[in-house]
Amino acid sequence: MTGRAKTYLLLGGAALALCSTLVTAQDAPESLLPPGFDDPAPTPTPAPQATTRPAPRPTAAPAGPSQPTPSVGSTPVIQPLPGVGTVSGAPTSLPDGLPSIEELEELDPDELDELLGLKPKFDIPAAARRAMSQVGVLSPEEGGLPIASLEKQPASIVRASLAGIRGPMVSRWGHIMLRRALASRLAAPSGMNPAEFAALRVQALNQLGEFKTARALAQDVDTGNWTDGLVDGAVEAYVGTADIVGACPAVQLKGGEREDAQWEMLRSICYAFAGQGARSQSNLNRAFRDKIAPEIDVLLAQRYAGAAGRGRRAINLEWEGVEELTPWRYSLATAVGAEIPEALLNDAGPYYRKIAATAPMLPLSQRMTGAVDAARQGILSSGAAVDLYSQVFSQTADLGEPSLTAARLREAYVASDPAARMAAIRDVWGGEDRDYGRIVLTAYAAARMTPSEELADDAADLIASMLSAGLDADALTWAQFAPQGSEAWALLVLAQPTRQNPVSQDQMDLFVGSDESADQRKSQFLLAGLAGLQRIDSSSSGDLASELGVDLGNGSKWSQLIAKAASVRNQALVAYLAGLGMQGSDWDRMTPRHLYHIVSALNRVGLSAEARMIAAEAVARG
Questions:
Q1: Is residue 187 one of the residues assigned to a domain?
Q2: What domain range is 112 assigned to?
Q3: What span, in angstroms and rounded, lies between the C-alpha atoms of 376 and 355?
Q4: Is 63's pLDDT higher than 70?
Q5: How many whole angstroms separate alpha carbon 11 and alpha carbon 95?
Q6: Within a 10 A sphere around the Cβ of 314, how many other Cβ atoms?
Q7: I need a labelling partner for 617 at 20 to 30 A (CA). Which of 2, 92, 149, 472 fits?
Q8: Count: domains in the chain
Q9: For residues 150 and 158, is the Cβ–Cβ distance under 8 A?
Q10: What is the pLDDT of residue 237?
């Protein structure tokens, strides 16, 4: 609400209070009927007729002031304001400062509704509104976490852990685990507004690049219950999915609560899709004249809003002089099918590539730029990434590198000769500096390879590929071709669902002696993973930690919190705190100590599958 509208509303409230005083001061309610239309007086009962003499004539009434006879229909009848002119001390006019007719005509309809108190809080009837006791899209029956996981946990810790998630995870499996925890149908912690809890999760999902999941979570809360934080997070999710109209219910209900340029353009777009094309066009024209935003932003909004009207006018998008891409520009250009200059796309960061991979309205050539990134991070599953390359293979147009990868990927899956399949798998992986996202592409192709001595040199890479999709049972069939101390052995030791005997000092010495990774990072991660899964005895762990120069025992406030959450077996809080400790763009950001606490906590609360896959991924990518 603008300052002027607030002033009018206050003055209107004063006038209403005055009118209420006037009504109370009346001695009796006045008739709303004009003179001549009041209820007629009761008809007198006729006297009985005399039998001996006629009834006497009625005598004339005493003289008094003459009363005019009402003439019905001869002059217009105006009902006076109740009490005005009859109550001592009452004003004969409305207070100064209320808007004039001209000012009322200039008010935005939303401002006028707010001024008159007509703005609804909900856009659905009371019987159809949803309870806020549980918010989320993944029930326990569908793999979600227990509903009451956080109900009795301190709201401050939950708030801090969710608000601290500000970027992607270094681990693909960490991303998958955290997405599941954020999307679960959960009750809010005690003392926290359920809408705030939903807002924090929506914002965390946005930071992970999971805009579709964030949008679904926001939509699980009735728009009338949205807080400012949920509005901001939901709008970001709608922009990230190019679903601009999806934000309209919140925009219409919240009205003038935000005054930034993006919000004003959203309101104008929503007017167009609500059938108010002229109003939308007028507002956007004024925004263009007032330069509330860069020219290209308003032009894109006009193009989008114009798609809702019958009288569409051509909007020429001028990209000249635009030096950077923004989420707003990318979203609207994607939604209206506008071509973004190649120079801007080439300079775009990972945000836009990951969005492109999951945007079905984009051409395949543009979607493929982010397919490997999305597979590496965990936004796309292995199967979804393969489906995307299958679409490329079915295209007649040559898309360059994606077409070549699609052809080799097909050979990796369907070639009749095992040697040909293995050669195709290697081609998909690439050279020494291979992208882990390409390892994800071949997960199911690797699972189709029959273990053999001839392929023993590829065992570690094949096992890592299978484990990227969670195919631990298939990976374990390679155990006989994974000699102790090899990387393949290390991955299987971590991936085993259960293990009877702990890893010995001699077995670890073999691995450490052959580890050629920088600073022996693979050995450090293997030790941290085994210690977290309790698959190595404490004496061996201490000796190896000293040898490798790591200290798994040193703690911090974060490690104390995640250990405490694990001690009470709270899966949701452990997952949130684990996500807090896994942020970063590369595994160089992960320390063995953090990995140990994350794997240990996840294993203790029953999320052992995630713990095992994260530990194995650390060794494969360390």
A1: no
A2: 1-19+97-119
A3: 14
A4: no
A5: 8
A6: 6
A7: 149
A8: 2
A9: yes
A10: 97
**Which of 84, 107, 106, 79 lies closest to 94, judged by CA?**
84
Q: 1 and 111 in contact (C-beta within 8 Å)?
A: yes
155 domain-assigned: no
Q: How far apart are CA 185 and CA 146, in angstroms?
A: 8
Of the CA atoms within 13 Å of residue 199, those in its CB half-sphere come to: 17
Please report, as a single letter, which amino acid is at residue 35: P
**Residue 246 carries which DSSP code?**
G
Q: Please indicate, yes or no, if residue 496 is contained in any of the structural domains.
A: yes
Would you say 233 and 218 are in contact if contact means Cβ atoms under 8 Å apart?
yes
- Tell which of 56, 88, 119 closes a domain: 119
pLDDT for 257 equals 74
pLDDT bin (cut points 50, 70, 90) of residue 18 is very low
158-194 tens-digit pLDDT: 999 999 999 999 999 999 999 999 999 999 999 999 9
CA dihedral 323→327→328→331, nearest 10 degrees, is 110
Give the integer Cα–Cα distance in Å for 385 and 372.
8
Residue 329, burial from CB neighbour count under 10 angstroms (0-12, 13-18, 19+): buried
> Mean of the per-residue pLDDT values for the chain?
85
DSSP letter at 333 equals: H
Backbone angles phi, psi at 489, to 5 degrees: -60, -45
Q: For residue 547, give both structure tokens.
A: 């040898």
pLDDT at res. 115: 56
Strand partners, 184: 138
Helix/strand/coil for 503: strand
- What's the pTM? 0.81
Tokens found for residue 182? 């954020």
| Residue 8 belongs to some domain of the structure | yes
